[in-house]
């Protein structure tokens, strides 16, 4: 007679037959299977359940691990393809589907693993522990993947709402030239006025950026013959003080929108033509940033920290309890959105050049804080704010290209030129600009910057979100010290005439008694600013 051992020389593994195990070993087995499903999904099925299901899940798991390793290597050593993929809307759609499928698949494996554990064989006390642990791990893993799918889909929808559907644009003379405006339609204003006007000229190979700042009170902006505005303003936008460049936006929107048939924003198209005529460049796209929405972005980021080297006035509650002008003293601050906007835009008792220095400082501080931790923890708020603050005609299909260039740009210092003092001499230069001189200086600046970028080192990994840059631009006068001075070289803050420190009460007295000279002296160093630590 044949014995059972002869019929089955390889008895079943205890892992597959938990009824043969002691109670403590059943607990260890349950915890082992849960650990395998957490670390290597599919492994629990291979060793103790449906091997076909396990092998399929393991293939998926190993593929995901390989892609993650590849992503890390790309991020460390060659991040341009990774940035392009992350910014591509088709890839984002695939990621949404894949993450959702992985979440569902992992949940299925958890349910199957719970069946393999044979919960009914566990000791009564361990049933509650294993049951709670299984549910917790299901929620953790499925929740992380599910939220990842939701977050990618949110980003994809937001980018789709911000960027335009239009043909791809090509660089001109090796550069992309984008108009970046900061618009303000605040209380007391008739329509929107772009008080901040920049042109970002980006080298299409190196990502090196030259930012040209056009004062909002620039007059006599010229137009080329191929501009629709040539027929209206053949001699330029030259009707005197009423025709400063930031008035052109509403002028075209209200009076000449028909010159740009089919344009989503005729005013913005007109500003592109004007900026191109001023600089002698072809402007290929624009971004319009709403100032109030920008404050929402700062709030979504949790505030922004800056260190200021001077006294800066703003509207608030004075020491006597009345509403009026109060002052931020020198020191480090973490501003919310409203305060950051007030600090960056303050112009009382100072000038536009001091204002732009503070705004560039706020920009730098935001870039320094715009890290993965901030993005992950405040993702939804940041994306919602981004939808509200940015209007652009840049093609969405090239977002990956622009993000890659933005990453490269961090390896080069951003070059700047203001189309007015101090880069162009004369307090009346913005009223009577010399456009031949401007065009010559712009060409020279671009040539020098391209040469410097070609001789610099390899590209850096950090990103520069150009479209979120904002600044009120300079008008006519220069601060007493140079913006960008290192903190170690900052002069001491101003004092009272007797040498004693300036106090809130002193500033209130100076305001109430009309001591404008003393107030201007107090504000003399408020252009000095650095990102907070």
TrEMBL record:
The chain crosses the membrane at residues 30-49, 56-78, 90-117, 129-150. Residues 1-22, 476-505 are annotated as: Disordered. Residues 193-369 form the Cell envelope-related transcriptional attenuator domain. InterPro entries: LytR/CpsA/Psr_CW_biosynth, LytR_CpsA_psr. Keywords: Membrane, Transmembrane, Transmembrane helix. Residues 476-488 have a biased composition (Polar residues). It comes from the Bacteria. The keyword Membrane applies. PANTHER family: POLYISOPRENYL-TEICHOIC ACID--PEPTIDOGLYCAN TEICHOIC ACID TRANSFERASE TAGU. Belongs to the LytR/CpsA/Psr (LCP) family. This is Transcriptional attenuator, LytR family.
